[in-house]
Amino acid sequence: MLTSFMIAVIAFVFVYLGEPGMIFGWYQKLINKIPYDWIYKPLGGCDKCLGGQAAFWYYIFVHDEYSLFYHAFFVSMTILFIIILEKLVYYGVKDD
Which pLDDT value is given to residue 16? Predict the structure, then answer.
């Protein structure tokens, strides 16, 4: 579970630092030109999509014994952690 939290933090911070004026703003400008959401979002256009994609592939490459249930749980926990991080960081600032 710690690993899914770490992936969530990395994905959240990466997308956060892609906002205009931040260090990865150039990257967001670059991927904003991609017309297809199914490519744009997992590449960093959406923190939950990026984190879910990273967790998906991390689980496949790291775990020797595959379990569909644990794989789905790992990806879901990562996305849940990102949602919690968003609520904590943007509490009272952004409207959903």
Answer: 94
